[in-house]
Amino acid sequence: MGLFDMLSISGSALSAERQRAEVVAANLANAETTHTDAGGPFRRREVVFHAQGQGGFGLLLAGALQAGPRGGVKISDVVDDPAPPVKRYEPGHPDADKEGYVSYPAINPLLEMVDLMGAVRAYQMNASAVAAAKSMIQESIDILKS
Question: Which residue, 6, 19, 40, 41, shows the most beta carbons closer than 10 Å to its own?
Answer without folding.
Answer: 41
